[in-house]
Amino acid sequence: MFGHPLQIGLAIPGAAPDIVVAKFPNMTVGGYDPTLVLPVNTTQAEINQVATNAVKYGVDTTLAVIRFINNRTILGIAQGVILPLPQDAPKAAIGGLAVYPVLPNIPPTNMTLDQRRALAIFKETDIASFMLKSQAILDAQRAANEVNQALFGETAPLIVVVI
Fold first, then answer.
1. What is the pLDDT of residue 10?
2. Could you read off the pLDDT of 98-117 as tens digits, one per residue?
3. pLDDT higher for 14 or 144?
4. Which residues span the domain enclosing 135?
5. Which phi and psi angles does 89 have, rounded to 5°?
6. Does 13 have pLDDT greater than 50?
7. Do 44 and 21 meet the contact criterion of CB atoms below 8 Å apart?
8. Of 25, 76, 141, 150, which is least surrounded by CB within 10 A?
9. What is the pLDDT of residues 68-97, one digit of tens each?
10. Which of left, alpha, beta for 134 (phi over 0: left; psi -120 to 50: alpha)?
11. CA distance linking residue 112 with residue 127, whole number of Å
């Protein structure tokens, strides 16, 4: 996840460099996992808290943190502090620009667990990153509820679901 050797960084010319998520409790990295970048409305301390709560409930910390970051991205788009990716930008789940190595073009039923995990991560991240502001506003209440659930630990944080 953090500085993953299989993942190149994405940068916008002239923009500040991405702030990469640091290690967090029970972090596990799959061979196809992306490097995670902190959204502008998220802190490393929050990432650590979400991971700690995931450990408390015995859920995959990495998948909980990714779900949390994606929900924060949706909230940021709804509030106008994060711009959604342009609709014609390459999608991570399709492969190419954002994924090294590119996931094989095979049906999910023939993929390894690690490949299915990566596909789930990228699909959910794409949904959050490309969401239009009008869609984000409609989804903001759900995202806010899940953010609170992940941070406060009264129930288990939700995770990216791997099928």
1. 44
2. 443 445 566 666 778 888 88
3. 144
4. 1-163
5. -70, 150
6. no
7. yes
8. 141
9. 999 999 999 999 999 998 888 767 654 433
10. alpha
11. 23
CA distance 66 to 119: 13
> Please, are residues 118 and 6 in contact by the beta-carbon 8 Å criterion?
no
* Buried residues in 105-140 as b, exposed as e (16+ CB within 10 A): eeeeeebeeebbbbbbbbebbbbbbbbeeeebbebb
25 pLDDT tier (thresholds 50, 70, 90) = very high
Half-sphere exposure of residue 53, counting CA atoms within 13 Å on the CB side? 24
As for how many domains the chain has, the answer is 1
DSSP-based helix, strand, coil % in the chain, nearest 5: 45, 0, 50
Beta bridge partners of 57: none
Residues 19 and 144: their CA atoms lie apart, in Å, by: 23
Residues ≥6 apart with Cβ < 8 Å to 80? 133
CA distance 22 to 86: 27
Alpha-carbon gap, residue 53 to 67, rounded angstroms: 13
DSSP string, 38-99: --TT--HHHHHHHHHHHHHHT--HHHHHHHHHHHHHHHHHHHTSSPPPPTTSPPGGG-STT-
Reference 50, options 66, 31, 28; nearest CA is 66
